């Protein structure tokens, strides 16, 4: 299948038909291992060249994370802010019956001890724990699209970055 195949909305086209359970579990373990090993390069070979990562963070910042290098850069960005970040899988995967789409539930924990660069916000050292759902589309044995959902505002409050509308310190 040629690279950079997209739908009219710009979303990469996935394979047709469901994804196998063994493949999905093995693939997601590779994704989580790439993060937990703190080696962003590990995600490069498990996503397509036209991979698109869509998350609350990318939507808030306007960061267009498309392609293998951008996926690596995104992991590096997150780990730069949260150097002790650890992901854990919290539930069995959920499978689409007609599409190459699988969702995975997770929990992330750590401390904001690095720097959010950009925009250059130094770490507060505060701990965090948050949960979310990642839904991946697959093509040719690799992820071509990720839609992640999590409470970004809640995370920002936990780490002391969110300030109230009055500007009087971090929300608790």
Describe this structure in words.
The protein is of the alpha+beta class and 172 residues long. The protein has a single domain (21-158), classed as Nuclear Transport Factor 2, Chain: A (Roll), CATH 3.10.450.50. Helices cover 25% and strands 31% of the residues. The chain has helices at residues 21-36, 56-61, 68-81, 152-158, and strands at residues 47-54, 65-66, 86-89, 94-95, 101-111, 115-116, 121-122, 127-139, 142-150. The strands form 2 sheets. Strands 1, 2, 3, 4, 5, 8 and 9 form a 7-stranded mixed sheet that branches. A two-stranded antiparallel sheet has the order 6-7. β4 and β5 form a beta hairpin. The relative contact order is 0.19.
Rg from Cα: 17 Å
CATH topology: Nuclear Transport Factor 2, Chain: A
Which second-level CATH architecture applies? Roll
Low-confidence stretches: none
Structure at a glance:
With 172 residues, the chain is α+β, with helices and mostly antiparallel strands.
Which short descriptors sum up this protein?
172 residues; alpha+beta; Nuclear Transport Factor 2, Chain: A; seven-stranded mixed beta sheet; two-stranded antiparallel sheet
What layout of secondary structure does this protein have?
Layout: H1 21-36, E1 47-54, H2 56-61, E2 65-66, H3 68-81, E3 86-89, E4 94-95, E5 101-111, E6 115-116, E7 121-122, E8 127-139, E9 142-150, H4 152-158
